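re: ur question from yesterday

yeah so i grabbed the chain u mentioned. its 292 aa long if i counted rite. heres the sequnce exactly as i have it in my notes:
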Amino acid sequence: MTNSVADILIEALPYIKRFSGKTIVVKYGGHAMVDEKLKKDFANDITLLKYIGVNPVVVHGGGPQINKVLDSMGITSKFVRGMRYTDDETMDVVEMVLGGKVNKDIVAGINRQGGKAVGLTGKDGMLITAEKMTILYRENENKPPEIIDPGMVGNVSNINPDIIHTLTVKGFIPIIAPVGVGKNGETYNINADLVASKVASALNAERLILVTDVDGVLDADKKLVSSVDAAVIQKMIETGQIKGGMIPKVECALDALKNGVKKSHIINGKLSHAVLLELFTDSGIGTQVFVD
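ran it thru and got these structure tokens back, copy pasting raw so excuse formatting
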């Protein structure tokens, strides 16, 4: 057993050296946010990264938690093309749950493991400025496109990384709720994958890791693609091999690569210590996307 543990540490050593001093942005979502053991594993992973000299930045989701509170208040959740319709009442709940309950739970979990996490929303230090999103939807080629209003759902217009730099230099771990602010002070609900991609780009991060509930990108035989060039991924989207909910995740990964991030990863957060296994082992556990 001693030899196997030593082998694991030796395998991890070149990756630890490579990532020391670098920024890694992790989008935290899916089952890993609700399973108690996985939550503790994730907190340990992020804390360990900071202790070995990596600068982790976490952007989190919180859809199930939002649904639970809305249900308890008798507010029916509505979705428009896969996005939560966010009226003023729903936006109040989203901001309360993401910026309050979920964010602070993650902060507390990391701090219990010895980390120094600090919770933020996009409103803090004008971290995330946003503009209203509209959706252009065409039911079929015989009908004109229809503009759909999803309510207070936003696109990222700018990331101001100053507050993140200030925190990481002081040894803190930023934990970001994906809530942005508009030019007139209005609040926007923003997709967490999108925020993570834009934050990673603004920080010129070494890696973007999207923690989800699937193993990664699958090939035509439903086998995991462990490493793939961005151009190949784009063709897989165009041919329909990548479809459904995986498309926006992959597009966020590609967008980060176009804007200076070295590699993007899509991993299954249902596996214990998924972040460490992806970063510090030769084989990894998910799909890494790169630009050749």
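noticed a couple things. The CA atoms of residues 97 and 181 lie 16 Å apart. also The longest strand covers residues 23-28.
anyway ttyl
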